[in-house]
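Minutes, project check-in

Agenda point 3 was the complex the collaborators sent over. CS summarized: two entities, 1133 residues total, and the question is how they sit relative to each other. Sequences were read into the notes so everyone works from the same version.
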Amino acid sequence: MSDQFEFHPTGLTRSQFDRLSEYADRAETISPGHLLEEARQHLEQTQQAHAANRMINVRLASAIVDVIERVANVWDSLSANHQTWLAAAMLYFSSCDDDEPDFDSPIGFEDDVEVLNSCLRLAGLNDLRLNSEDYDDA
Amino acid sequence: MPKIAAPTPGMRVLCRDAEWLVTRVDPSDHSHQNYAVHCVGADDLVRGHEAIFLTQLDTIEPVDPRNTQLVQDQSSGYRMAKLFLEAQLRQMPATGVEPDLEGMGVFKPMKFQIQTVEWALRQLRPRLLLADAVGLGKTIQVGMVLSELMRRGRANRILVLAKKSMLTQFQSELWNRFGIPLVRLDSAGIAKLRLRIPANKNPFEVYQRVIISIDTLKNVGSYRHFLENTRWDCVVIDEAHNVAGASVPERHLAYRLARLLSRRTDSMLLTTATPHNGKRETFGRLISLLDPSAIPDPDFKEYSADDIRGFFLMRFKEDVREDAGADLTDRLLVPIDQTTVPATAEEEKVYAILSELRAEATKNKGEEAWKNNVLVQYGIYKQFLSSPESCRKTLQKRITAVQAKDPESPELPYLNRMDSQLGTLSIRDSSRYQLLKRQLEAIGWDGKETSPRVLVFTEYRETQDALAATLAKDFKIKYSPKFEQQPKQALATINGSCPDIHLMKTVEAFGTGASDVRMLLATDVASEGVNLHHQCHNIIHYDLPWSIITLIQRNGRIDRFGQTESPVLRYLRISTRDGMLKGDESIFERLIEKVEEINRSTRQGETVLKLYDPEAEERYIAEAGILQGNVDVLEKPSSEGEVESTELESVLSQANPAGQEDFLKFLLGETEEASAADPTADSSGKKYSRLRLYDDKRFLLDGYRYLAELHQDYAAIEENGKLMLLNAPKDLRRRLGAPNERGDVVFGATAIPSEAWPEDNQFRLTEDPDRVELAIKAARNTSGHWSRELLATDQQPILQWITERLLMLMKRGECPHITSRSLESGELCFCFIGQVSSRAGAPLVVDAHAISFRKGGGFEHRSLRDALDAAGFDSLVNQGNTGDIKAIQGPLIEAAVESSLEHMRELGRKHVDSLLPFLRRENRRLRNWKNRRQELLESRIEKLPPNHRKTKMYRKDLEEMDAYLRDREDNWQDTYFTASTEPSTQLVLVIEGVN
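CS then shared the predicted structure for the full assembly.
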């Protein structure tokens, strides 16, 4: 499915792109409201995990969900291509098992940010992009 | 039942029906569920014995602090409680990133040396290449970093690798100046040790701190199994260029050894004044030894300044001259015209033939008979410049070889004429030797014991032999060429054939005032690493190596930090009438000037010609300068390798913090606010914390005297002005490995170097570093490397032994109870030392604090210092008021312990939070490296057939990358940063307020 798009996110590692492409294939069938709900649930799990492991970057996860909410607000104004990739980025975030395990690394959400930023750039939503280093403090 | 934390250092535990004091805890498996608990025996059955217990095999019972039994201190002035508390504080690891130079050792710290320590402590994982220029005190900096790491509990197990000739020098510097004892092991020593321990035991785990030569250990095959199972806290590799310069590193044993050790240690320090040979991969390889995740390119050829920034410090004399002041004396070059004489008439005849020979060889250089004939072109000439003896030997060999190969060779008539002309010449008649004698006269050298020491370098063994024999005869000095005689003679020689043990002894004798050696006549075997400046400031270059690098290394033997006189340099030179050879003089003069220019600049000598190899420099100067008659040969670099080395130097200069206004900011690459952040500041935000109730001298005196009152076999400690004389009792002798104590082999032992152990077992300790400095100088005047007086510092093994003994004043689970009139009546002040350990048992947070309960339910949490001040602790006297111990036992202690544990939990949380930015940055760097490396390797694999040798190699690189990252997570992050779930605390004193 993802092969048919002429424009796709760039600057990702091969494994990030492969995984994102898999999510893009699934993304069309999921509504933005559901994606947002999944992202919020993942943030909740992150907060719970943080209570036991302070190295988990709950601030960054929370910032990602904020961005996802803002993307959801402008969803209808986005092209189908951009919607698909952004939906894939949301699914990527909601999955624990990605390039950098969310709950098992002090930088567990950095790959999520990279994927999301890449899709935001593709969609021209540059002002929503995040800088992980801004969330390094506990 | 309340949860009891794993054992921590300072804790008393029960194991195998005996009581032990825990000194260290290491992980014993990858799960970090099990520990190796290092202990010292604490009860009568095992007192003074050391042991390591594995939690998976033994039941180790720590005491639950809630069950602590209070013991009324009945000693006068509460000495026992005070000393017990001081001992507890002394075994607490320091925290914070600011170095505390107070009492660290015997040296005058320079700003640039302090910066080294500051940067090492800032690193989450101290790994540093010290690439300062020759003679800027790299060993001192190593000692400073090790001392600070030891104070933080991060350098208990140290391995130093050095060249054989440097072992004693390095060992004695660390002992004399820092009280760091290294046990010297060689192949025979390891073999002997293995005979004394069970066959399956690891010889590298017997001693905590070891120095071994690279040559001994590089036979990785023999020791691989043991080395792979040994973890070190810090590995130091001296003269580290010796492990990274090979063209095929995988086949280079020393490189493989260094790589193995790099993966088995937390901290790593590499030192070298020549960190690269102009090729990017040699420098890259050194950096990758420090941190395999620094450079993504598996061949270490492609890297940027950002990849290597923070891994090395490179300073030159000019960078530190202002800072060093009088410790870096300006050297004096005796004007060349004063050290130049004309050749004798007989020598001129030889020069004339040499000139003809060169003209002929140059004219016919394309012809087979002359092509590539280095010896004829300039080799024989260079040897004649040194001595007739050196030239004659080479010449005769050449004649024999040419006659055998081609009796019609056109070079033969020249060689025969020269041989005939050389016939009767000897070094004694040579103008150079006569010049040497005049220079020795100017120095006041006559070989007698009042002569100043002189270091004379020559390039050739034949010259050395002839020179030694002739000097001995002319100055009526007894001289034998036997190796073992060298340290005992006024004239000593060393060269490449000299066995290391004799070389070390001769070097030591040359640096010892009372020894007979007045002149050291050396080939370039002595031009790297060894310190020859202690008793000598005169150097004479008898002949001139055609290499800037060699000359800088030679001069660096006496022109270095700690030289108290102005080094005086003499380059002996001969002028000739011969037109062709006369041109060479300008090149030689320029060579000398260049060396002096570099001495006054902030660059490496190697950068002038960019050849990075003495032999390559010699070849270049000969072929591009001497044979071409090109006097400007030294004005621009050789074209060979110029582009690569220029690029490399540019990268190094961008990454080097030397000369930066704010070196920390530069290294951290951060904003000012961020650079002020501190990954390991303690809970109070202090940059450094060491709480002491006694200074080192009082602790030594009072602590030992208290112990002596309890042990009749402890002789009294004498105080003589600033000196304290301590006769080592039997258990100290056994504990610190006195040479005549043949106990069992103790694993994890600290042993004082046998040469440093006083013959009468009497240690002379002082708190005055200047006094020890004098003692070091006195040793150099009388006996050699080892100072007879030692600085009483907290890392000194004798003070550590006293600390251990005092910790055993209380039985397991006991804590002293005292009373104070300064506290409110009925107030109870519970003093604790708490610790949050990593999952692998390393201390993350250690905190001394107090919980006070007042009558009526008042509660206060304070720092220990504040609590002790409130109780008037320092001036407390024991008035016999016993307080009410029974009322305190039980619930009150339990409540105080709970409060202390909660306090430690909070500190643990804060600590992890404060570390997060640093940990995230490091993890980000690792991830970036992984991504770049993976991409690079995969793109290379794609271009190759699947079964290609390189494909397999790159696949292996990928596997190794994953293994490395897993290891970083398991053995580094978990060891040093991941907090265990439960902190521990120990009640160390209870003060009760009384009327």
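Noted in discussion: Chain B touches chain A through 17 residues (CB under 8 Å).
Follow-up: revisit at the next meeting once the mutant set is ready.
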